[in-house]
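Hi U.,

Before I forget, here's the chain from the pilot set. I'm dumping it here mostly so it's searchable later in email.
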Amino acid sequence: MRRRDFMTLLGGAAVAWPRGAWGQGRIHHVGILASQPLPPIQRFIRKLREYGYLESQNLHLEMRFVEGHDERYPEFAAQLVKVPVDVIVTWGAPAAVAAKDATTTLPIVMGAIADPVSVGIVSNLAHPDGNITGFASQNVDLEVKRLEVLRDLVPHLLRVGILANVFNPVFTATLRQLRSEAEELRLSIDVFEVRSGGDLQEALARLQEARPDGVLVAPDLLLLSNRADIAEALAKNRLPAVYQFREYAGVGGLVIHGANLSVLFERAAGYVDRILRGTKPIDLPVQLATEFELIINLRTAARIGLTIPPALIARADEVLE
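Structure:
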């Protein structure tokens, strides 16, 4: 999506006009480095408006979306540093790593990342290193909970397939926890590797051939960029699957369980405001997600011939009928 198209879409939404807009005397340049202009980023921009930052008045957004081409993160991060922007906002581990590699001086705010400690972006949540801080979605820990949800969905669960981008640095930590949990539960785990958008169909074909009892789709923005193909393939082949991002619900994902990323990005707008006012990233602790979502798609359940346990439906925050 082009920047102009995205801002037109955003501008069409009803938002409250900010009171007492701050910093009218200068233009603040905010960079966004992510996979796609999804709703959490729109929420981030709207929240900035509430803090008094208005495009064409005192705010200029430099947005870079790789659209499923993760190899472009370093290039786009370097572009943002060259502008230069006042702060870079990232979504996901590959974007955060690229931004950290590109600059040791420009502030970086992670709008959402699974686990910044496990991938070496920060060594301590309470006192982050140098120029980077932000918000963690806890997807590494949540992956074990998604496995538990999958067991609730499929009582006879013995074999679990994981669709994953193995180049995502978070996946190593995720797989370590999953294998430990699976061993205790006497489950077998098979990883179906995706290394780029180009080999997704091959991975989905191998999943279809292997026919595990259930599937976990790893938390990854490359996969999210191909969410329609993934959800359709798994539903078509009657494979129960648990996802982590709410966007999968809109394309027929069966069950979604994860952090509310829109809330995280709204909180990230608060960090950006504080940094633009002079606070240093090192003085802002990395905060963990506190709001989570469980979404169940009964339409997809009917399509694949699966009965959702009533107890699981009762726990859901949202049920699509």
